[in-house]
């Protein structure tokens, strides 16, 4: 959900699924088994394996390429080829390499099929025939055949897409393979310049520009008086990974850890504490000792003694009602658990704020 420019993301150990299929990249493999999802140029997306084919056609040379490299607020421009052509305008926050290739393919698609509203399908090419690949040709052919299109086959569409790629410093060459797969080779000089910019200006200049300024991440959320199990560890690692990615992208991240629900287990623990150690306030943490052992003992008493169970349930009501004695006991139990959790967070180098 979004509100006032903020995004709230909850991650509590849910399984992360994968979408789509990856296809083999070889000179003689089968066609892709599934059409990759469409990618909008301005946004980041997961990179899946593309499908490359050996090309029977010569690579189409880029006759005039001009540099328009944007790294954060730093923009450098250089030219190759004809000096008479104007340089392509610099774009602030051009995004990742894949985003920039997608933007160029989008311009080519508009020039190739202006009557069709289509989004670029760009994948990483893992073979030796290119760095990225545009896979729009077959889909466009399926849509256009029989409607008076001037293209004879998907390969002709691929040739047109390659030809209409704008002159730029990013692309060294483009070739068409099989039924219109457009293999794109990055310019080595452009790659070298990107690496040089990274070394000089730092890796932060590569951060994507996201449409949000603040993100709330609710993760980890271990159970009080219990050890963190694998579900909590998974949520902690996934949440911290997301937080680091957003922070790298210059987004303010609110790392939230929700602990200490006022459930039956707290009434059970508090009542057991009062029963075993009437002077628990003087003893402090020593009264509880090992919280795991203390929890198991109180749970056994709760399950076997109906009168104790009734008192524990009433303790929850008093805790929720704000009675000072019960609130103080609740805080002490949370403090002991928190100290144990913090040892795990310290080992994982995870920063969290309790709320």
Automatic annotation (TrEMBL):
Basic and acidic residues composition-biased segments: 9-18
Enzyme class: ligase
Domain Arginyl tRNA synthetase N-terminal: 99-186
InterPro entries named in the record: aa-tRNA-synth_I_CS, Arg-tRNA-ligase, Arg-tRNA-synth_N, Arg-tRNA-synth_N_sf, ArgRS_core, Rossmann-like_a/b/a_fold
Record-linked Pfam families: Arg_tRNA_synt_N, tRNA-synt_1d
EC number of the protein: 6.1.1.19
Keywords (A to Z) from UniProt: Aminoacyl-tRNA synthetase, ATP-binding, Ligase, Nucleotide-binding, Protein biosynthesis
Biased composition (Polar residues): 70-83
GO CC terms in record: cytoplasm
Highest taxon, organism lineage: Eukaryota
Keyword DNA-binding (UniProt): no
Residue ranges, annotated region (Disordered): 1-42, 70-92
Catalyzed reactions: tRNA(Arg) + L-arginine + ATP = L-arginyl-tRNA(Arg) + AMP + diphosphate
Record-linked Gene3D superfamilies: Arginyl tRNA synthetase N-terminal domain, HUPs
Family: Belongs to the class-I aminoacyl-tRNA synthetase family.
Protein name according to UniProt: arginine--tRNA ligase
Organism of origin: Aegilops tauschii subsp. strangulata
């Amino acid at each position: 959900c979004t509100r006032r420019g903020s995004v709230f993301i909850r991650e509590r150990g849910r399984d992360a699924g994968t979408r789509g299929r990856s296809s083999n990249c070889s000179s003689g493999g089968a066609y892709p088994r599934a059409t990759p999802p469409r990618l909008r140029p301005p946004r980041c997306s997961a990179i899946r394996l593309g499908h490359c084919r050996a090309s029977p056609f010569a690579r189409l040379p880029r006759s005039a390429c001009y540099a328009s490299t944007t790294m954060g607020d730093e923009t450098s421009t250089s030219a190759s080829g004809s000096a008479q052509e104007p340089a392509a305008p610099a774009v602030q926050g051009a995004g990742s390499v894949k985003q920039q290739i997608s933007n160029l393919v989008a311009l080519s698609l508009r020039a190739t099929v202006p009557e069709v509203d289509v989004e670029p399908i760009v994948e990483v090419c893992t073979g030796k025939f290119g760095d990225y690949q545009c896979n729009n040709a077959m889909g466009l052919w399926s849509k256009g055949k029989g409607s008076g299109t001037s293209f004879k086959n998907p390969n002709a569409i691929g040739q047109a897409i390659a030809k209409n790629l704008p002159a730029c410093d990013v692309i060294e060459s483009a070739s068409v393979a099989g039924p219109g797969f457009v293999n794109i080779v990055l310019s080595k000089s452009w790659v070298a310049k990107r690496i040089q910019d990274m070394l000089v200006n730092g890796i932060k200049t590569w951060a994507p520009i996201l449409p949000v300024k603040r993100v709330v991440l609710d993760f980890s959320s271990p159970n009080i008086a219990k050890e963190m199990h694998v579900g909590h560890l998974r949520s902690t690692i996934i949440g911290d990974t997301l937080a680091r990615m957003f922070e790298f992208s210059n987004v303010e991240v609110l790392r939230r850890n929700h602990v200490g629900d006022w459930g039956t287990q707290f009434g059970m623990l508090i009542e057991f504490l009062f029963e075993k150690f009437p002077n628990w306030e003087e003893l402090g943490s020593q009264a509880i000792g090992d919280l795991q052992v203390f929890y198991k003992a109180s749970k056994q008493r709760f399950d076997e003694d109906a009168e104790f169970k009734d008192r524990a349930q009433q303790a929850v009501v008093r805790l929720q009602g704000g009675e000072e004695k019960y609130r103080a006991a609740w805080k002490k139990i949370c403090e002991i658990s928190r100290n144990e959790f913090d040892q795990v967070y310290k080992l994982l180098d995870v920063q969290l704020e309790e709320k």
